[in-house]
Amino acid sequence: MSTRRTRTIVAALATVLLAGSMAACGNSDTGGGDGGGDGKIVLGFSQVGAESGWRTANTTSIKDAAVEAGIELKFDDAQQKQENQIKAIRNFIQQKVDVIAFSPVVESGWDTVLKEAKDAGIPVILTDRAVDSADKTLYKTFLGSDFVKEGRLAGEWLVEQTKTAAGPVNIVELQGTTGSAPANDRKEGFAAAIAANPNLKIVASQSGDFKRADGKQVMEQFLKANPDIDVLFAHNDDMGLGALEAITAAGKVPGKDITIITIDAVKDGMQALADGKFNFIAECSPLLGPQLMELVKKVEAGEEVPARIETEETTFTQEQAREALPNRKY
Ligand code: GZL
């Protein structure tokens, strides 16, 4: 075989191997993957995972908005592991993307990799969840909800609903992912709202990791250990929906024997609320894609952006859920 032909085959093999190694770096969808050679802005996005209906809707919003905005999206699903997010961010730095955005699965442990992005001259946008870094120059802005407020609204509704209750009101709490901003902040907001009412007692509180199956499992434990549960406060709809199964299996009527308060307002949660199985939901909108893409264009162009952009959202009672359901986008 001629040397030229051998060289051609070797070069082809090397290209295939290189492409394979890039794809093997994680659960990444590298979009066009041409590094923006066509003049498009290239955004590297590290997503928490696919743990809940909220997260699925958030991913759809981001992917659709990138297409709409003409932005090349390199998307990585970290499967709820911080080490995967750090790996993905380092990958994006190596690929010299224009902007990095991510939803940090937990609040702590980001300074080193965010400093690497800063040293590489790549702006970072926090999306959905925040980090506890003291150095605010490590990211350009934080786009997302006020989770303390969501927890407070949930607590305030319960205070209003129980102000004529005679005896103790026993509450169990399904927390979100341990160490995550939404779990920490929702817990803080709810506790602060009920603090002035000593009859409102949190008798058990444990993480269900924002997942339906874990919510069911932990609720089963709560029911075994606490015969008189009056209220469930779940940090998201998915854990509340899992808990519904455990409550029903225990022969109790959700929404009546046990009042259920959740956060998110995804379609399945709103349906449970409309059906009377949930009693109140504080909304947490996942539809961050369009705002994120506008911010990406601004920071890429070197424009100033606000340090904090808070998502607008509301709350729902059973009646309001029945009215809102037909028009819900997620
Ligand atoms: C909140 C988001 C949370 C949702 C959960 O902005 O980070 O993570 O409340 C999701 O449903 O898993």
From TrEMBL:
Localization in the cell: Cell envelope
Coiled coil, from the record: none
Bias (Basic and acidic residues) ranges: 320-330
UniProt signal peptide: 1-23
Pfam families: Peripla_BP_4
GO molecular function: carbohydrate binding
Superkingdom: Bacteria
Region of interest: Disordered: 311-330
Domain Periplasmic binding protein: 45-303
The entry's keywords: Signal
UniProt entry tagged with the keyword Signal: yes
InterPro entries for the chain: Peripla_BP_I (IPR028082), SBP_2_dom (IPR025997)
CC per GO annotation: cell envelope
Family label: Belongs to the bacterial solute-binding protein 2 family.
Protein name as it appears in the record: Monosaccharide ABC transporter substrate-binding protein, CUT2 family
Organism lineage: Bacteria, Bacillati, Actinomycetota, Actinomycetes, Micromonosporales
